[in-house]
Specification:
With 227 residues, the protein is α/β, with parallel strands linked by helices. It has seven helices and six strands. The chain has a six-stranded mixed sheet.
Length: 227
């Protein structure tokens, strides 16, 4: 039988000030990629018709939820923060209702210098790669990692190359794509953001706390994995 190939889109979120490192991911099998992307594009069509948010506008969770930028062509819409929560609600709904996507997240906390934080970020990525490799193995699948970025940071390849070549299921080094050109990276970004807020539990962002739990049905591990 043919091996399933999964495209795994990853984005990270974190801040040295909170000490939190979070990676969020979504994966879709290549043979359902068209249908799954169709669902995302239908959502973007709806957001354009309902809220005048152009399809090409990058929905970057931190900025978007925080009230920054002008996503809508309707200037007055942009000034009401609550409007943005409605949009995220609809995005969460689409992801949680997708039969094609599997999602997940990992989180870790570190206190110390910027160097400690950067080191922890790479350690967490290594843990994530091992987890995903096992997840693929259990399915008899192979996977390709696609991340937000321009590929200039070569440190992420180390985690891939430390997997045993004979048994590894993640093929190739990570591929990089710019988030503003990819609906998938924007989904991974929202997953990372939702997981981050759920773990951080900041009273100022209480309205975000239930976003990640609403994705539980899609979550490969039933919740954020603390490492």
């Amino acid at each position: 039988s043919m091996t399933t190939t999964e495209l795994i889109y990853i984005d990270d979120l974190g801040a040295k000030s909170t000490g939190l490192v979070v990676y969020g991911w979504t994966t879709v099998p290549t043979y359902h990629w068209n249908e799954a992307l169709g669902d995302l594009l239908a959502l973007r069509q709806h957001l354009e018709e309902a809220y005048a948010i152009p399809k090409r506008y990058e929905l970057h969770a931190t900025k978007f939820v925080g009230g920054r930028g002008n996503p809508s062509l309707d200037v007055s819409w942009n000034r009401v923060k609550r409007n943005r929560r409605l949009v995220v609600d609809e995005m969460i709904e689409v992801i949680s209702g997708s039969p094609w996507m599997t999602i997940g997240s990992i989180a870790s906390s570190v206190y110390g210098t910027r160097r400690h934080y950067q080191h922890e970020k790479l350690r967490a990525y290594g843990e994530l790669i091992n987890m995903l490799d096992s997840w693929l193995d259990a399915r008899g699948a192979v996977g390709i990692i696609i991340m937000d970025g321009d590929g200039s940071d070569r440190r992420y390849t180390t985690a891939h190359r430390s997997l045993n070549l004979k048994t590894r299921n993640i093929i190739e080094d990570p591929f990089f794509i710019n988030s503003h050109t990819s609906q998938w990276i924007q989904v991974a970004d929202l997953i990372a953001y939702s997981a981050y807020q759920c773990v951080l539990h900041s009273p100022a962002k209480e309205f975000t706390w239930d976003w990640y739990p609403r994705l539980k049905a899609r979550d490969a591990y039933g919740g954020t994995v603390m490492i």
